[in-house]
What we know:
The complex is a heterodimer.
Chain A: H1 2-8, H2 11-36, H3 46-57, H4 59-88, H5 105-108, H6 110-134, E1 139-142, E2 145-148, H7 150-157, H8 161-188, H9 197-227
Antiparallel strand pairs in A: 1-2
Chain B: E1 3-9, E2 18-24, H1 33-46, E3 69-70, E4 73-74, E5 95-100, E6 109-111, E7 114-115, H2 118-127, H3 147-157, H4 164-168, H5 175-186, H6 195-208, H7 219-223, H8 231-246
Parallel strand pairs in B: 1-5
Antiparallel strand pairs in B: 1-2, 3-4, 3-5, 6-7
Helix pairs in contact in B: 2-5, 2-6, 3-5, 5-6, 5-8, 6-8
Amino acid sequence: MAWVTQTLSSSLGRKVIMxxxxxxxxxxxxxxxAGNLQLFKGDNGRAFNEYTYFMTHxxxxxxxxxxxxxxxxxxxxxxxxxxxxxxxxRPVKYAYSRPEANSPWPSRNMGILGTVxxxxxVIHMRTFWYEMHFGSVPMAEYxxxxxxxxxxxxxxxxxxxxYVLLYVISMAAVGFHMAHGFQSGFQSLGIRHTKxxxxxxxxxxxxxxxxxxxxxxxxPIYVFLQVHGII
Amino acid sequence: xxxxxxxxxxxxxxxxxxLVEYQLDSISPEMSFLEMFDVLNGELTKKGEExxxxxxxxxxxxxxxxxxxxxxxxxxxxxGATTCQLHMRSFNDGDTIVVEPWRSRAFPVxxxxxxxxxxxxxxxxxxxxxxxNTGSARDANETPIPRNIADEAMDAAQCxxxxxxxxACKNASAMLYVAAKVSHLAVLPQGQAESxxxxxxxxxxxxxxxxxxxxxxxxxxxxxxxxxxxxxxxRLNREYLGAKLTSTNVQG
Lengths: 231, 252
């Protein structure tokens, strides 16, 4: 098995771990965004709460959720290892450097963007995931069945302007992170082709870096405006 | 034209260096950047000062010796060119120009602007040999190679091992260099026999030399004097992963 650890600890192997965990997390963004669109339904959270019940009780979803937590940790830890290694590769910095002349900003600052996202994930999970699993969530009754009213927690959280702002800023970080990360993930796996790379870039740039973060950012803004009676 | 230079001076690899300022008052815009340094060294010699050490050889853009990080960019503001192909007309009268050596753990500074790039040679050595037929001469075109494949191999083989990719990369990664060296053999039939071992050994040597990992910023390709494409990095990833999954080398 020496070859496995040796491969995964090589500079290319580490990038493969970043790629596979990153692309898995990208697929999660789609599901998370699609499910949460139910916040826009205007049914005082019934569809959202029923969806929440499904997501916390379906055995397949629960299994995948553990894979998700592992991926977040692996992605962050490997990013830390790679960053330290990469910094050590240039012990003396340039006195004057103009990297903006040859490379886009997000590609050079994935670590900073990722740190913002990790902090966001901690805050986000504390507010919703922790409350859902271990906190005291009010109950709602639909057709005689009891559901945890996570929608009430959502409304309370997004009634604060600073919390909404935090989410909007974090979603901008998601956008920039994905603008580089999605297509890079394929590059690390060696998937690059005249026919498919333009498609991958298109999906990365417009779907993952634009549509997904905008849809996510719209949720706290919508709930805020609704709670405060503006819409 | 007048230029103000800030040049990295460092006595040897064991001492700390610093930027030193020099003024040149009568530089022709038609001089190459290296000729400008020749003028400066001439003046330093007259004054009895130690001249600035810098690498140069062919001065026609093909040897890859003239490693200089000029005004924050490998080989200066031009793209697709080495330092010797950079001319003073690319600067304005009175400009301040900062000149530093390549910065990488794998390229220790020997003196002033000279760095030791033998790490590249060791990566090549790790790649090993290519098996060839040493019998009687073979017929021309006995091994058919389509034009586009030949072009692809040649694009990679243009690499002059100048180290601009390492210098420009935020991680001081040698991926574009190693990719070019693996790629130009990997696409040709002659390179197939040893392709698995080559990818494994060259990547292992690259890591052992202390180069960083690839962040796919694209800086290397932009600063490469031969504009070698990122396609080759993807091919190296493919070759390496394929080699690791299929080779019989269980020790890693």
